[in-house]
Design a protein that fits this description.
Blueprint (H helix, E strand, L loop, with lengths): L2 H12 L4 E4 L4 E4 L4 E5 L7 E6 L4 E6 L5 E9 L5 E7 L5 E5 L13 E11 L11 E7 L10
Antiparallel strand pairs: 1-2, 2-3, 3-4, 4-5, 5-8, 6-7, 6-9, 9-10
């Protein structure tokens, strides 16, 4: 069993079965609120992102200490308006976190469909590692107990 699969299993175990994983849509729904999960598309996912609408929270994990960085970009889905992007090159499963508490730039519009792109890059650059990019569209709808899709 790969390290990535063991970590996902550990997260699921800690949540005491309250987490339902739907791999086809890269969604994880929790009984204590709503949040979403997406991984890079490489054969041994080097990064993943968790979106928590309650605080406009975006957690980015660099799962491997391999010299690559994980890059996330967020847009409004309608009109493709760029909102922000950031990197995590910390490796070894360390997280980088942004939320509406990180400043006005990270305060995402409410009740809006957002598009997320995750990918690996060669260090903190725009040099994308081929075959690692994935996209998701999620609704930023605070207070819902079920994840909202666009």
């Amino acid at each position: 069993m790969s390290l990535a699969r063991r970590r996902i299993r550990a997260i699921t175990t800690v949540a005491t079965g309250a987490v339902a994983v739907v791999l086809a849509t890269a969604q994880v729904a929790s009984a204590q609120g709503n949040w979403f999960l997406m991984q890079t598309d490489d054969d041994n996912p080097g990064g993943h992102v968790v979106f928590e609408p309650e605080y406009d929270g975006v957690k980015l994990a660099d799962k491997q200490d391999d010299g690559y960085a994980v890059h996330i970009t967020v847009w409004k889905n309608k009109g493709n308006d760029y909102l922000y992007d950031f990197y995590n090159a910390r490796g070894e499963g360390k997280w980088t976190y942004r939320s509406n508490r990180s400043g006005p730039r990270f305060d995402l519009p409410e009740n809006t469909c957002l598009k997320f792109r995750i990918r690996l890059t060669k260090g903190v650059t725009k040099n994308v590692v081929p075959g690692t990019t994935d996209f998701a569209t999620w609704q930023n709808a605070n207070g819902n107990h079920e994840p909202q899709y666009c």
